[in-house]
Amino acid sequence: MTAITLVQGDITRESVDAIVNAANSSLLGGGGVDGAIHRRGGPAILADCRRLRASHYGKGLATGRAVATTAGELDARWVIHTVGPVYEAYGNDPSLLASCYRESLKVADELGARTVAFPAISTGAYGWPMEDAARIAVETVRTAETAVEEVRFVLFDDTAYDVFAELIR
C-alpha cells in the first residue's frame, strides 16, 4: 500500500525519486510549479523537453498524459511532466485530472521510482477548485495499482495543506 504524506512548502526542495511537474502541453516551461521546476532544475530539464518535442511529442503532451525527463539540479532522479486540465474547459470531466495522477504513477513505476512528490495539479492558473482537485488526487492515489511506496503531496500554502489534510485523516 502506498503511504500518503503531506508537506507544506516548495516542491523543488523535496528529496524524492521523482517530482511531478504540473506542466503545460508545450513542455517548454511556464509559470507556477512548472516555471519553478525549470528554474531550479536548470537547463538539462528544458534540453530533455526539447528532445521530446523533437521526437514523440511534436504537437506537445496531451492533457492527462505524463512523460519523464532528467531532474537536472533538483534533488530527484526524474521529473515527471503531466498536463492538467483547465477547469473552465474540462470541469465536467474529472477523469482527466485523475489521469494525471494515474499516468504519473505509471511512469514512476516504469522508472522504478519509489518516492514521488506531487503538487496540487490544475489548482493554480488552471482554476480547478481545491476541494474537488484534492478529493480527486487523494482518491486516485489511494486506488492506484503502483509499486510507489510514498506519494508526497507538496502544497504551497495553508489553504491547500488544510484541504488535503482533511481528506487524509
In short:
The protein is of the alpha/beta class. It is built from 6 helices and 6 strands, in the order ββααββααβαβα.
What does this structure look like?
By secondary structure, the protein is of the alpha/beta class. The chain has a single domain (3-168), classed as Leucine Aminopeptidase, subunit E, domain 1. It contains 6 helices and 6 strands; from the N terminus they run ββααββααβαβα. The chain has helices at 32-41, 43-54, 87-90, 94-111, 130-143, 158-168; strands at residues 3-8, 18-23, 66-70, 78-83, 115-118, 150-155. A 6-stranded mixed beta sheet has the order 1-6-5-2-4-3, with helices on both faces. β3 and β4 (78-83) form a beta hairpin. It starts with a strand and ends with a helix. The model has no long low-confidence stretch (mean pLDDT 95).
Helix-strand sequence: EEHHEEHHEHEH
Give the total of beta strands: 6
In spatial order, strands of the major sheet run: 1-6-5-2-4-3
**Number of separate helices:** 6
Helix content: 40-55%
Q: Which range does the strand content fall in? A: 15-25%
**Tally of structural domains:** 1
CATH class: Alpha Beta
The major β-sheet equals: 6 strands, mixed
CATH topology: Leucine Aminopeptidase, subunit E, domain 1
CATH architecture: 3-Layer(aba) Sandwich
Q: Give the overall silhouette.
A: globular
Secondary structure category = alpha/beta
C-alpha termini separation? 16 Å
Mean pLDDT: 95
CATH superfamily: Leucine Aminopeptidase, subunit E, domain 1
Spatial extent as radius of gyration: 14 Å
Unreliably modeled segments: none
